[in-house]
Design brief:
With about 280 residues, the chain is α/β, with parallel strands linked by helices. It has a four-stranded mixed sheet with strand order 1-2-6-5, covered by helices on one side. Strand 3 and strand 4 form a beta hairpin. Helix 6 packs antiparallel against helix 7. This is Neutral zinc metallopeptidase.
Length: about 280
């Protein structure tokens, strides 16, 4: 991936600060919240119910040169997302407001409760921020078999920004209304969750195509690394590695093949209007 001099200024780096409050429910609460998150649910209610009831962590450390370089890289990617989505929204008669990107280590406070590294990167609609603990990428490589490159980070960030785009377009709110209505079964809401996640993959593909056309950032192997990351976190791959079998009814993010398909559809078309995963998957 080719670096540029772009910097977005919308990155808040908390890695050198102490963590947030320890969750009052202890480690068990964090595990339950992480499970809920990976199943496609909203962990904020469990996290916020225990947040702030423990003692704040005050340990601080100096960022290393490598830490600072990673921060610059994410800031650069943040700017790329701003530039591309500004253009896409303008073309469709809308205004884009960028999310804040928060880098943290181990745990920090978010608008959805306490963010914890075990949850992986996520987007919080409540404060319109993307939370990223960079240790996730070690897990992605060591536990799920993806070869991690700089563009792997770019893909994951673009996927989370894709969720922000969904919030700006009202998709997140509609999905939340469906979940809160109580009218739909767990299996039905799982299908809605899959459509939501695949659309974020599609948006990441659109971003990749449009950003490269403008900035010429892609180098040989970059798109393949994004595909490998998407496939690695497919529900079937995760279930096969964690429990030894696949249960399609419990999918919440889509299969490896689906994640590749929708990312590549976004990349090949570069057209946000081609990403109606809900109509395609919920017929």
């Amino acid at each position: 991936m080719r670096w540029t001099d772009d910097r977005g200024g919308n990155v808040e780096d908390r890695r050198g600060l102490g963590g947030g409050a320890v969750v009052g429910g202890g480690l068990g609460t964090l595990i339950i919240a992480a499970i809920i998150f990976f199943l496609g649910g909203d962990p904020s209610s469990i996290l916020s119910s225990g947040a702030g009831s423990g003692s704040p962590r005050t340990e601080q450390r100096e960022l290393t040169a490598e830490d600072k370089k990673i921060g610059e890289m994410v800031d650069m990617m943040g700017k790329w997302n701003i530039t591309t989505w500004d253009q896409v929204f303008q073309e469709n008669g809308m205004k884009y407001t960028p999310p804040k990107i928060i880098l943290f280590s181990e745990t920090t406070q978010s608008g959805c409760g306490v963010a914890q590294s075990a949850m992986g990167p996520f987007y919080c609609p409540a404060d319109q921020s993307v939370y990223m603990d960079m240790s996730f990428f070690n897990e992605l490589q060591q536990r799920f078999g993806a070869k991690v490159t700089e563009f792997t980070v770019a893909y994951v960030l673009a996927h989370e920004v894709g969720h922000h785009v969904q919030t700006l377009l009202g998709t997140t709110q509609k999905v939340d209304q469906l979940r809160r209505s109580g009218k739909y079964s767990e299996a039905e809401m799982n299908r809605v969750s899959v459509a939501t996640e695949l659309q974020a993959d599609f948006y990441a593909g659109v971003w990749s195509r449009r950003t490269d056309a403008e900035k010429h950032i892609l180098e040989p192997g970059d798109i393949q690394s994004a595909i490998e990351a998407a496939e690695a976190v497919g529900d079937d791959n995760i279930q096969r590695r964690s429990q030894g079998y696949v249960n399609q009814e419990s999918f919440t993010h889509g299969s490896s093949a689906q994640r590749k398909e929708w990312f590549m559809k976004g990349y090949n078309t570069g057209d946000i209007r081609q990403g109606d995963t809900f109509n395609q998957l919920l017929k």
